[in-house]
Amino acid sequence: MRTLAISLVLASASPVFAEVTLQLLVKQHAMPNTPRPFRDVGSFNIRLGDTASAGGECPGNTDANGKLSCRFACKPEDLTAKNFKIVPPRNERTKGYTVPGTREVSLKGCQLSVAELEFVYVDIAYAVRDVTRDTPLATQFANVDTSTWTASFDPASPGWAAMSATPAGRAKLEQLRALTGEIALEKASDKDTAKAAVWGNFSVGISNVLLKDSASRNYGQGAASQIKVSPDKADLYKNLGVLEAHIESRPVMTPRDARLLNDVSKLRNTSSDKLPGASFKSIAMD
What is the pTM of this model? Predict the structure, then answer.
């Protein structure tokens, strides 16, 4: 009788969890089509901070309508907000498409900050043409990834300087840097070393364009003259080291100097295979 009473007390003291659902809507966009449902895409991951979370899951694949439900365990009385990251997959099914960015949702009690999230996978060639449309780079990328496209990164091309002259242009360069790096990784996974090199050269070259422009805007032509624009990864890491040393030598470091130093140091310590997924946004815009 005593054992039964203890069991009942323990059972009543156990936390009672409920469940809340987040709807994912996944689409694919390729010219000339408008975005349409992307079926059979699965393995969306849920993270809490930088670690995998057992508090939520997105089981199965998207259905014929591109929909997938994620579920989260919750306690209605818990008023502590938890910020979850929803990470879209990169797999065989998504080859040839850009991978959408990670999205965040907040959970407080059993109330999610949003009920639905949309993820759009964009055909890579279309994405490149879209980013460069109506820019000085439009002609260069008009026939991208076709049999007639033979472009290569040219450090002397006036298009880079024209693009880096404005914040809007630099933002597009950062998008293009990430896209070309993503394509390089995909071509490498397909064992297409020639195309991987072409796309990788663009990604590295644009990284160096952004570094040179940042040095010029923030520290003048003397600093910029030490940055070499080339498609060579060795030059990229050397440029990061040069800029890092220049910032560290400043007699007085401003908040902007501190931000740039932090970002440059992170990039310098990033392995070359991870650079396409790293962000040069603050370097392009700060």
Answer: 0.79
Q: Strand (E) positions, the chain? A: 18-29, 36-37, 45-48, 51-52, 56-57, 67-74, 82-87, 103-108, 111-112, 116-122
Q: What tens-digit pLDDT sequence spans the chain (286 residues)?
A: 444 444 444 444 445 679 999 999 999 998 777 899 999 998 899 999 878 887 899 999 999 999 999 999 999 999 899 999 999 998 889 988 998 989 999 999 999 999 999 999 999 889 999 999 999 999 999 888 777 788 899 999 999 999 999 999 999 999 999 999 988 988 888 898 998 999 999 999 999 999 999 999 999 999 999 999 999 999 999 999 999 999 999 999 999 999 999 999 999 999 988 888 888 888 888 7
